[in-house]
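Input for the complex:
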Amino acid sequence: MKKILFIEDDMALQKAFGTILKNKGYEVTSAFDGETGLKMAKEEGPDLILLDLILPKIHGFEVLKRLKEEKETQEIPVIILTNLEDTENVGKALELGATTYLLKTQYGLEEVLEKIKKTLGE
Amino acid sequence: MTLKNTLQDLNLVAQCRKYNLSIWQCPHFFFVIMGVIMAGIIIAVYGIGLYYVNDPQVIALSVLFLTAGLFIITFIITKAFERAAEANRLKSEFVSIVTHQLRSPLTSLSWAIEALISGEFGKVEEKQLEYLKILKENNKRMGELIRDLITVTKVEDGSQFQNKESVSLEATTKDLLFKFQPFIQASNIDLQVKTDDKLPQVLTVVNQIKIVIENLIDNTIRYAKPKNNEKGVIEISIIKKEKNIQFEIKDNGVGIPKDDQRYIFQKFFRSQNVKEMQPYGSGLGLFITKSIVTKLGGKIWFKSEEGKGTTFWFLLPIK
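Predicted:
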């Protein structure tokens, strides 16, 4: 069973999307802020990280930067799932090593699930 | 006030840029021009007085006092403008923060509704499904309104207009039309595109010009529905006109009532005949379109007859 770490501070989104991912057969762990997310990524070694950018404690960009710097987490694919739509942010995230950048408002549930499957090589 | 601040206040270009105004629209510039004209008038009055009046200094002094009074009034007006511009900037910033904050709960709502509809959380009865679909539709409308509001604040603050690059309007339009193809087919519309051979590129901001073309195409498809059950026809042409590229989009649809035409580029305005066809819409599309074209140094206009159709044109400078 593939393990997904979902770093997102919106509790409703965590619950709804987390449940859907579980129903699809993934093991899902959740973090509500950047600091906990980083810690869990190191401890649990998930197969994929879904990362929001506007997060409490440590900003998503900093989380991404540290994930890509640390030896034990740098190979984990990271999908950015955010509402920040500026071209600058997209470029910065991809430069820091994100696999994909998805705008929550532009993607439906099914499309996000497709991207996750593709990233996990399913 | 420090010397640095005083020098900054004297930098006209910086002052005008702060409020996203060109120098020709900027009150600070006119303040200086007025000063120069007044000084000229005082000298001229003194010069004329030397020949025709016994005591020219008295007249020159009277003009000087009058000028000083006018200067004070103009200075007060310029400061009032600065306060109004600052309040407007804060308002835009507030709208921007609110709209961004609204997006997150809206996404949660949207995905939760989608999950419920797909039966992810258990079987849904037919009546429940009907209401969930209404929720989904309304949620989508809210999302569109928020997207439009964000675009408005971005266009107004001018921050998105810095990086210009050479863009082919023809290729951009064709890419966008490809995206609209299912909508065009579903609306039973005949689309014709004509362009000049070897059109030069325009120096513009690609993301912004995409919004303009997208809005015009979207509007035209929505309202290109002739009343007498004829087939809707959309004609797009892109041609070179002197030092500009002209984009034209024409339909044989409902048209804009004459009385409404003067308001068409205003924020939140929607024509009555359009409201009857499409009850929902933000009324921001054409406001955004005109604001972007103007900021890109171009111009936009239209011709319309109710029941016969509408043609929109915009011109963009090649360089």
